[in-house]
Automatic annotation (TrEMBL):
Annotated function: Functions as a ribosomal silencing factor. Interacts with ribosomal protein uL14 (rplN), blocking formation of intersubunit bridge B8. Prevents association of the 30S and 50S ribosomal subunits and the formation of functional ribosomes, thus repressing translation.
Subunit structure: Interacts with ribosomal protein uL14 (rplN).
Location(s), subcellular: Cytoplasm
Organism the protein comes from: Bifidobacterium commune
Protein name: Ribosomal silencing factor RsfS
InterPro entries linked to this entry: Iojap/RsfS/C7orf30, NT_sf
GO BP annotations listed: cytosolic ribosome assembly; negative regulation of ribosome biogenesis; negative regulation of translation
PANTHER family to which the protein is assigned, alphabetical: IOJAP SUPERFAMILY ORTHOLOG, MITOCHONDRIAL ASSEMBLY OF RIBOSOMAL LARGE SUBUNIT PROTEIN 1
Amino acid sequence: MAALQSSIDALRLAAAAADRIKATDIVAFDVTGPVGITDAMLMATASSERQVLAVAEEIERELYAKCNKLEPLGREGLSEARWVLLDYGDFLIHVMHEEERLYYDIEQLWQDCPRIGLQLPTTPEVATAATDSTIGQN
């Protein structure tokens, strides 16, 4: 079973919002295989606490505006602004300060999961041909 197309579409909007606020290392994984409670997750890096909050807020605005007023079911980490988790049920969004992203290296948990093509101009998988491990390239 693969991630729902609605989750992939929402993650692409979230990735574009993060990219506009200059987040880096934006990646998404289809985690339907190892995780039964969510379809996918997106990770983005910010260089300061202020940027972490700005990225998270922009993602929330974008998904609310373009996904039928979609709001997160939960938010974590807003007060410290080092690692903000936005839980949308079918997908999760992690906006992490670069130090936390390096320290926790949560991508290692999902390295065997297929990456979701985010269709960003700065995303390497868009510039190259799709591979078998990249899904959602339309």
